[in-house]
Amino acid sequence: MLIVMKNDATEAQVKAVIHEIEAMGYRGIPITGAQRTAVCIVGNQGVVDDSRLLTMDGVKETIRVTKPYKLVSRETHPQSTIITIGNVTIGGAEPVIMAGPCAIESEKQALTIANLVKEYGAQVFRGGAFKPRTSPYSFQGLGEEALKILKKVREETGLLIITEATDHTNIELVEQYADIIQLGARNMQNYSLLRRAGHSSRPILLKRGFAATIEELLMSAEYIMAEGNPQIILCERGIRTFSDNTRNTLDLSAIPSIKEVSHLPVVVDPSHAAGRREYVIPLSRGAIAVGADGILVEVHHDPPHALSDGMQSLYPEQFAELAEELKALTKQARVNK
Ligand code: PEP
Ligand code: MN
Predict the structure, then answer these.
(1) C-alpha of residue 275 to centroid of ligand 2, in Å
(2) Phi, psi (5° rounding) for residue 335?
(3) Residue 134 and residue 164: Cα distance in Å, rounded?
(4) Ligand 1, pocket residues at CB < 6 Å
(5) Can you name the residues that pair with 207 across neighbouring β-strands?
(6) How would residue 337 be classed by pLDDT, with cut points 50, 70 and 90?
(7) Which residues lie closer than 8 Å to 244 by C-beta, 6 or more apart?
(8) Residue range 202-226, pLDDT digits in tens
(9) What's the confidence (pLDDT) of residue 333?
(10) Taking Cα atoms as reference points, which of 130, 150, 124 lies closest to residue 203?
């Protein structure tokens, strides 16, 4: 339930409402909007009796939130969330481009790719330090050494850094180096990791699990937000279907579906969806055309020798072409608005 406060409600009145909600055995989370403050009740199992709340000073009305996720829902927070990190905004008018290798392999590799993607228009550099691999015998990432390389990339290029935390034992280390913490598809329902991410001061990019529904993705985002971190970016990266022509099937309909019910920004990872670089540019076009707030794409200067995901990594010249196309598409989208 949402307790909508009057436009002129005072801070003390909001506090009193939260206090009353706590006395009822629930939690009250204030949500400050452009026009008004609302208090979202979380922790209730069934219908909440709002009769006492409606009589309190400063309360305008109560609204039932119909979805099982509360804080991430658009019912609770009608305006779209815009996340600002330095001079980069995610969820605003311009799509964000996050690009880089699947994994950090060496300082030379990372700096070579970072300088190229920066030159061609990326704002955020991606690269795994801890890699969640299907096989225990595959390259697992360089760990802290890679995080130190990422720090150097930030210092030399000014690009923001996104890298994955794979469990609650490495998230503390990752948050010391990353500007955005990625939680991978395999970890979308790792609840201890989600809760820990909720205590981070860094924005979290949460990937959709390959067999997860939109509602399950949003419930996972709710875990993070309920712990106090409102800076969440969702990522569609393809789901598993009977279609075996691509590594996964990119669910483009997820983007408008999520945007209808949630205020969170949504980006698309065409690389893990496609599994082949030939499909990455067309899928990226589709992503922006259906309203994605950006893309997260794998780029390598020498894909045949990449230690992971070489087949789906764009050559730098292909990334340049993609970045140019996205600029043109964004302009077109604005004209059509
Ligand atoms: C990645 O982006 O490096 C990755 C492992 O992706 P996913 O979690 O989507 O498989
Ligand atoms: Mn990869």
Answers:
(1) 9
(2) -60, -40
(3) 15
(4) 102, 128, 132, 164, 184-186, 207, 237, 269, 272
(5) 235
(6) low
(7) none
(8) 999 999 999 999 999 999 999 999 9
(9) 67
(10) 124
Pull the structure tokens for residue 217.
Answer: 């993705």
Which listed ligand is nearest to 248 at the C-alpha?
1
Query: Are the beta carbons of 124 and 113 closer than 8 angstroms?
Result: no
Q: For residue 85, report the distance from its CA to the centre of ligand 2, in Å.
A: 24
What residue type is assigned to position 165 of the chain?
Answer: A
Q: Which residues surround ligand 2, an ion (CB under 5 A)?
A: 102, 309
The angle, 0 to 180 degrees and rounded to 10, between the axes of the packed helices 144-157 and 107-120 is 40
* CB-CB contact of 246 with 279 (8 Å): yes
Average pLDDT for the chain: 96
Does 152 have pLDDT greater than 60?
yes
Q: How confident is the model at residue 174 (pLDDT cuts 50, 70, 90)?
A: very high
Rounded CA-CA distance 278/265 in Å is 27
Could you give the CA distance from residue 337 to residue 325 in angstroms, rounded to a whole number? 18
Which residue is closest in CA terms to ligand 1's atom 9? 185
3-state SS assignment for residue 102: coil
Closest CA to 287 of 330, 243, 242: 330
Nearest to 183 by CA among 192, 193, 175: 193
Q: Probe ligand 1: pick from 272, 280, 296, max atoms within 8 Å of CB? A: 272
Contact 164, 141 (CB under 8 A): no
Taking the centre of ligand 1 as the mean of its atom positions, its distance from the CA of residue 78, in whole angstroms, is 30
In the chain, which ranges are E strands? 2-5, 27-32, 37-42, 59-63, 83-85, 88-90, 96-100, 124-126, 160-164, 180-183, 204-207, 232-236, 266-268, 294-298
